Give the backbone structure.
Amino acid sequence: MLVNKSISLPELMQFMTLAVYVAAAAKQFGRLGALYQQTMGAAERVFEIVDTRSDLPDAPNAIVLKNVEGRVECQNISFEYNTGEPVIQDLSFNIDPGEVVAIVGPSGAGKSTIADLLLRFYDVDKGRILIEGHDIRNIKTVSIREITAMVPQETILFSGTIAENISYGRPGADISEVIEVAKAANAHDFIQACPNGYETELGEGGVGLSGGQRQRISIARALLKNPKILILDEATSSLDAASEGIVQEALDRLMKGRSTLVIAHRLSTVKNAHKIYVMDRGRVTESGSFDDLMRAGGLFEQLYKTQFRTQEAQ
């Protein structure tokens, strides 16, 4: 047709370009069926999770906590994951408003389970856990978690900006508030050094950040939430000495004026706790201040000296 001058060269080029676009669109249209099936399968899985009912539903007369001061009481609680294998046995302790209470002991003593029970991921088998004098089984679960913040050993960060990860503690927070808590958490300087500052995109799990940096973002998130009850679950155990010092300083600011439960592996981090409870095989074997427990010459002193020698050897 070009030789016979039925069409011009520009018209031929237009036709070829259009043919490429049509072919690509037709190929994409053919993939819609497969994409539809994938989407429906994924949606089914998502709604299966969303529609799952809690194994621990709220009681019909469950209350919403108001005017919370941060008083926590554990009264003779016992718990076991598997029948006949007790994890916690007849455990009792109190946290008064603004007080720092530490739970220490060897691995497998049941320390982290206490945090799960306090947040009502599980219910106790015996005894009671009270917040402001109310059994937590008679409090709306969302109310318990609104007044509580937790800084775990393994920080959970999401794909998104640094600012978004911090504001997860209180969605809708102003950027000025985010910056304020980041400064208090000793995180502002390293965030400012990132390529886009607070708008720097993080990969899933905080890829690209060190353990200490991830932990400081977690602390900033907890500060933004401004909880009445704070749980620190092995918050510095995976950090090196240099990072631990920076994070511990931020934690001291976070604990100020809050009822705090410290679950500690590094015993040097609990020196300033008001009360320390030593757990072994689900039971409290010793309690008192740091100095009292060191003078007592019991399990706490043995653990501390063993840990101190290990750190010196390293």
Notes: Residues 1-52 form one domain.
